[in-house]
Amino acid sequence: MKPKLAVWKFASCDGCQLTLLDLEDELLALAGLVELAEFREATSGAVEGPYDLSLVEGSITTAHDAERIQEVRRASKALVTIGACATAGGVQALRNFADVREFVSAVYASPEYISTLATSTPIAAHVRVDFELHGCPIDKRQLLEVVTAFLHGRKPGIPSTSVCFECKRRGNVCVMVAHGTPCLGPVTHAGCGALCPSYNRGCYGCFGPMETPNTVSLTRQLHVLGMDDRDVDRVFRTFNVRAFEEARGADA
Ligand code: SF4
Ligand code: SF4
Predict the structure, then answer these.
(1) Cα separation of 155 and 27, whole Å?
(2) Are the beta carbons of 129 and 57 closer than 8 angstroms?
(3) How far apart are the first and last CA of the chain?
């Protein structure tokens, strides 16, 4: 019997699920090791649980999803959340800092048909999560590491350091020091391989706050570079807005 792998979608853009299909060279080998029991992005077939490993993408934004994630948890031996939506509430958590009714009436032609919660929350706010894989989207090498680790019953080897570590390892010239370009690398979880700084751009914080982010120190540096409080709020309020706001609140 192969272990059953299930992939679930909540409020999200599907980009993290697609990372699994984007494994290219490794996908066939992985498909040989597991039974793809539930993965609507790849197959309309579905196999009943329990599932050995569930990968959950997306945040909780409706009352129905808040119930559905409980069912997913009950049916899953191990549950791993993938991506900024599932681990931090995603960009849709901008609603947490505003009035969601204003967004709904601005976006939808018939807002009276929209039934939504006032907040977007990560999966871990609702059920026990065995591992969180960060990124918007997640990195495919890290996804492969997490899936194989769970299949072999070991801890995933995912570093909890910052993007600066990856950046220095690649031998990049620091864009913040050399060019005065604002960069969230010092407070952002490693995983992307310092993609943006490698192309002379500042880090946008796609992977969310690293384990011990010093947002106070980075904010001071962003002010030195000419950003006012509003600019600083805006760079932190993107894909991982909820997690960065929590980190900034803890540091204040
Ligand atoms: S984390 Fe980013 S890529 Fe993944 S589902 Fe959410 S918005 Fe899409
Ligand atoms: S460019 Fe950004 S990520 Fe790279 S070392 Fe400088 S601050 Fe860190």
Answers:
(1) 21
(2) no
(3) 52
With a Cβ cut-off of 6 Å, ligand 2 is lined by 163-164, 167-168, 172, 174-176, 183, 185-186, 194, 197, 203
- Residues 25-57 as b or e (16 or more Cβ within 10 Å = b): eeeeebeeebebbbbeeeeeeeeebebbbbbbb
- Cβ atoms within 10 Å, residue 180: 12
Binning pLDDT at 50, 70 and 90, where does residue 249 land?
A: confident
Angle between the N-to-C axes of helices 229-236 and 215-224, in degrees from 0 to 180, rounded to the nearest 10: 130
Which of 187, 140, 141 minimizes the C-alpha distance to 163? 187
- DSSP structure class, residue 192: S
Sign of CA dihedral 100, 101, 103, 108: positive
Distance 243 CA to ligand 2 centre (A): 20
In one letter, which amino acid is 23? L
Distance 6 CA to ligand 1 centre (A): 18
The tens digit of pLDDT for each residue in 153-176 reads 999 999 999 999 999 999 999 999
Pocket mutation for ligand 1, best pick of 7, 19, 22, 57 (most atoms within 8 Å of C-beta):
57
Among candidate residues 123, 155, 152, 158, the one with its CA nearest the CA of residue 52? 152
Answer yes or no: is the C-beta of 84 below 6 A from any ligand 1 atom.
yes
Instruction: Give the burial class of 145: count Cβ atoms within 10 A of its Cβ; 0-12 exposed, 13-18 middle, 19 or more buried.
Output: middle
In tens, the pLDDT along 112-140 reads 999 999 999 999 999 999 999 999 999 99
Distance from the alpha carbon of residue 81 to the mean position of ligand 2, in angstroms: 27
